Amino acid sequence: MLVIDNLVAGFEGMDILKGISLTVNKGEIHSIMGPNGAGKSTFSKTLVGHPEYPASSGSVTLDGKNLLEMEPDQRAREGLFMAYQNPVEIPGVNNVEFLRMAYNAKRAHLGLEEADPMDFQDIIQEKMGLLSMSGVFMERDVNEGYSGGEKKKNEILQMAVLEPKVAILDEIDSGLDIDALKVVAENIMKLKNENTALIVITHYQRLLDYIKPDHIHILSQGRIVKSGGPELALELESTGYNGFNTEAA
Amino acid sequence: MNAVAIKRAGTVKTPDDVMADFRELLVNGCFTKELVGLNAVGLENFNQTGFPGRKSEKFTYLDVSDLAKAGFHLRKEPSQTTPSQVEAQLLPSTHKSRVVFVDGIYMEHLSDISAIRDQVELLPLSEAFTQFPEIKDTTLQRAIHEDDPIANLNTAFTINGAHLRIKDGEQAQAPIEILFLAARYKAYPLFTAPRLVIDVGRGAKVDFIIKNTKEYGSYLHNSVMDVSARESSDVNFYHISLHSGPAWRFFKLNVDQYAKSSVKLVNVSTGSRISRYAYDWNLKEPGATMEIRSLATLSNKAKNHKYATVRHQAPGCSSRLLFKNVINDEARSSVDSTVIVEPGASGSFSEQLIRNLLVSDKGRADNKPNLMIHADDVQCSHGATIGQLDEEILFYFMSRGLTRDEAARSLLNAFAREVTNSIKEPYAAAVVDETILQRRGE
Amino acid sequence: MSEATQLQPEVQQLLSDKEYKFGFKTEIDSDTLPKGLNERVVREISRRKEEPDSVLDFRLEAYRRWLEMKEPTWAHVDYPPIDFQDFSYYSAPKNKKKYKSLDDVPKEILETFTKLGIPLDEQKRISNVAVDAVFDSVSVATTHKKKLAEAGIIFCSISEAMVEYPELIEKYLGSVVPAGDNFYSALNSAVFTDGSFVYIPPNTKCPMELSTYFRMNEKETGQFERTLIVAAENSYVSYIEGCTAPQFDTRQLHAAVVELVALDNAEIKYSTVQNWYPGDKETGAGGIYNFVTKRGICKGKNSKISWTQIETGSAITWKYPSCILRGDNSVGEFYSVALTTGHQQADTGTKMLHLGKNTRSVIISKGIAADTSSNAYRGRVLMSPVAAGSRNFTQCDSLLVGSKSSAHTFPYIEGGNSSSRVEHEASTSKISEEQLMYLMQRGISKEAAVSTIVNGFCKDIFDRLPMEFTVEAEKLLSLKLEGVVG
To answer: Distance, in angstroms, between A77 CA and closest chain C CA?
Structure first.
């Protein structure tokens, strides 16, 4: 269970998040929606521990452990995962080797034996089968030369391998055409189970046609201005974000 | 006696010889008394090094041994020059914003800043030293730390220079032309050592034009300019040197930049017996930006040397250096530039690019784009190429009906324009267009 | 990659320790000349090695030239003056001067090699790699000799070659790096004690990778290896040099010379993994001074010389493996990774001298500077006026890890003619915060993330190494980067 309590955080000393509180239970799907500049990306970067987006007050716990005291890699090993909006390219680092390293870091954290390259091949094959992915781009370096769609698929594959407790999907729909969006979203739903909670960050309602959230939160000017069920997305569709801004003021 | 010889021609002069010359000139009253202290600093520094030899780090690619052997004359009094002779040399835009040197000596009565009187102060260096001791101090401090032997010769032998100040917050209403005239002196080559100290005030804006289009025969031009660009100032230098005769030409520009200032230099030259452009640049405070864009089109036996040192001394500064050379015949170009990011200068951005078009087998292009980085959060790059016109593009142009010569000229012009397009003063740009761009492809 | 790992368990084990594992000293009597250098010492070295007069003349000429030379100061390195009289210039294990077979080799020496992971023992030996092991100054064993001999290939210590193949030695020794070439090479030429000699006869492809491990043992012994490789017409050889040294408190001087000669259509690939003791991590004390002259000549047309180096050790590295591209259509390559950590200082690069027509050269250099180290690339590309149609491409990238390290680039791009092209590009940057963050978000520690990114940065170069050494190089780099955080 992820508990965010009155989180204040920002960039270059300026508070962007002005007190966010949110509880995400096991297996739930939450969607954070909001216009550009609402603080969506600050929210995700602060959660994963990006050094340029520190929290100035409030708390974030995952199963009772204080995430804000942890380095980004510790948070990840505790089960926090973020699928990036723009996954960075890492030249010279083979994708499978990278995935195995991440997988083994988690195994070591859990006190389990590390997977050797052969074992890991089996694991990755299985996950790729599950996600109906071809193995071609696994030969390449991390994200290097991938198309926008391939990058997003690779993020989801990483999620499949690492089996996080909470996965933040940061604008996973951006830059995808409708067919690719459908594939990515379906894959996410394949991975979704009672142990994995999702926080879906998006500007647009269209992603929610495929990933049905239990809860929707409207983020505006660093605050959650409204929370509700799936119906909120439809309301948003008709009124736009402006309606909510007024409400917040 | 109007001119005094720096003697001992024919053999390489030692520092002692130069010292003896200096004494003789002193006795003959060649120097300005307010500047003699400065002269002494230059002489002392020169004594440490003597004339640069091949092993001198700054002159690896430039042989100046014939300079060390030549006998020069220093003018005690400048040759007679009339205002109309001066005006004939000026751009239409700078008649009332001009700083004139004749035979290396600042000429107060030939200079005229009436168009920019409200924004600019101009004084002979001797007067500035007397009136403002801090100008003297700063100039002396800079001179003491000078390690370029040729610039030290300027300091030793400069007779009188000028001090220019752009007032805080002012924008000079006309570009300022700095004009160096020299008389053709038949018996011996002339030694000229002009000195300029420029202070651009906070938030001030000014353009300088230094232009040299006349052939003065065999002489030594050795100028030094010390520039301080205060906070948020904006300075452009357009340096156009289109004579390509038997002159030795040494130009040294020292720049200190303060917070958020911007200084840009465009240099277009055609080379001479020896041309050396040395830039010593300190980005002293955060957010300063500098740029050098340089084009040399060289032919015959011209030797053209660029030597630049840019120090990033504060965080968040940027430097951009572009040197382009077209080398014909037996001409030689060398570019030796170093960008130093000093400890603590994080967030530095720097790029250096040297591009040579070498169109003859006897020409030569030497390049040394150095980087010395002592801070980690930096983005620095450099590149250098030696090559020829792109055959495929030539072919493409020819397939559209151009002759090979026309195609080549067009490509050479395109190569040049990356530099010449940065000259924003229309009259100066026109001079370059008419000469440089026409000359290419000859 | 996994196969290679299995091939070299020794190497893997060797690299598993965090601290420098090779800091042990074998207790064994040795036959060492007293400290100091003079003409008598030079003559004595030659006498003990039973050399022909021509080699003695070469040594004496070099010695005389050396006396007139000054230690170079242009490199971007800083160290206290070296007292060249404070070294002993000859050291050999005492028992016997030469070993005919492994059985003759003292047990302690074999144990040392076992600790180093050098598989001298025939059973343990890595398949397809022949080792000419150098223990201090005298070659103690050469493996695979027989198989090589069948192909007509000579692979032996240079001492042996001087006795057995005097005509080849006379023809080629000093032909690329002459006696008085530079201060350190002149010193080497005067006092070199041993090294490797390789001759590949015409129309022969060497059937295996040749390899020498250098090992310095005797305290305060200067090491002056001399390697000479000659590839005759239409031949090919790949040679690997690996270095490791024991830990000592006082400086050790290493001034090796490597000469390569490639005749018509010949190819020489020379790979180095250099891991000399870099000195104390905190103070830099006790590290090796590595002043090496490596030069190859592409003498024949269509010949090729390729240098690949992974430089991770030494307190000071001064090294510029170079190619003289004399033959028309010849090719020179230089692929380098130089990692400096702690107090290390490296000034390394290459020279590509284009003298023949249509010659080609490629330089790819990756420099990584961490901690308070200093890492400089210095490279010279010269296009002579007659090198018509020649090309060079250079790319040198530097990566800074931490704010106290420094990275420098000093390229010399010279000459030219109307049909040659030179392209040089270089960049300096730090490890991208975004890359670091991405890896850490996947649960990888910062240290491992830094190491992964640096290894990725060097990948192009590692891929040039013979496969088993790729793994070794990657592990070495990770090992060196432990404790280094950006």
So the answer is: 5
- Three-state SS letters, C178-236: CCCCCHHHHHHHHHCCECEEEEECCCCECCCEEEEEEECCCCCECECEEEEEEECCCCE
Query: Are C430 and B366 inside 8 Å of each other by CB?
Result: no
Q: What is the pLDDT of residues C347-392, one digit of tens each?
A: 999 999 999 999 999 999 999 999 899 999 999 999 999 999 999 9
Put simply, whether C408 touches B (Cβ < 8 Å) is yes
Angle at Cα B80 formed by Cα B76 and Cα B82, nearest 5°? 140
| C252 confidence band (pLDDT: 50, 70, 90) | confident
Are A92 and C432 a contacting pair at CB < 8 A? no
Whether residue C325 is contained in a domain is answered as: yes
Indicate whether C453 belongs to any domain: no
User: φ, ψ for residue C258 (rounded to 5)?
Assistant: -125, 130
Does a structural domain hold residue C467?
A: no
The larger pLDDT score, comparing residue B218 to residue A32, is at: A32
Given a cut of 70, whether residue C243 has pLDDT beyond it is: no
Minimum distance, in Å, between the CA of residue C364 and any CA atom of chain B:
14
User: For B33, which DSSP code?
Assistant: G
In this predicted structure, what is the pLDDT of residue C106? Answer: 54
Q: Does residue C105 sit within a domain?
A: yes
Overall number of domains in chain C: 1
Instruction: With beta carbons less than 8 A apart as the criterion, state whether B56 and B152 touch.
Output: no
Contact call for B and A: 3+ CB–CB distances under 8 Å: no
- The domain locations on chain A are 2-248
**Segment holding A183, helix H or strand E:** helix A178-191
Query: What range defines the domain where residue C366 resides?
Result: 23-431
A2-248: what fold? Answer: Rossmann fold (3.40.50)
The helix or strand, by DSSP H or E, that contains position B140, with its residue range, turns out to be helix B133-144
Pick among C441, C446, C452, C470 to test the A interface (most A CBs inside 10 A): C441
